[in-house]
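Q: Got a minute? One more chain.
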Amino acid sequence: MFCRNCGQELAEGAEFCTSCGVRPLKGNKFCNACGAETRPDAEVCVECGVRLGKEERKNWLVALLLSIFVGELGIDRFYLGRIGTGILKLITLGGLGIWWLIDLVLIATNSLKDSEGHPLAKGEGM
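A: Always. Here it is, folded:
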């Protein structure tokens, strides 16, 4: 595997590139399979034909609907990849409704980010 940001070869299972400090699929300059340079908007590497890994952002509307209907059970937090706080929210039934209401406002105003720190995607695919 190669870093999509700097093109350096990565150790198997690496969470960060030791050369540039970026997560393996963050970036769009190099192929993650062969290390060849790629165009930022390319979906397939022209050198090896592999589909290029892209960051997938969580959908804002899905998060909002989950928060409205099952937010007291922490399902919205699980969807955003925030497993620990999802479990806490489940155990406390949404902080007796207070945490649920706060999360509802945070998601509605697009202030809550996913577990990777990415903002939620509005009007885009997941």
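A: The longest helix spans residues 60-70.
Q: Perfect, thanks.
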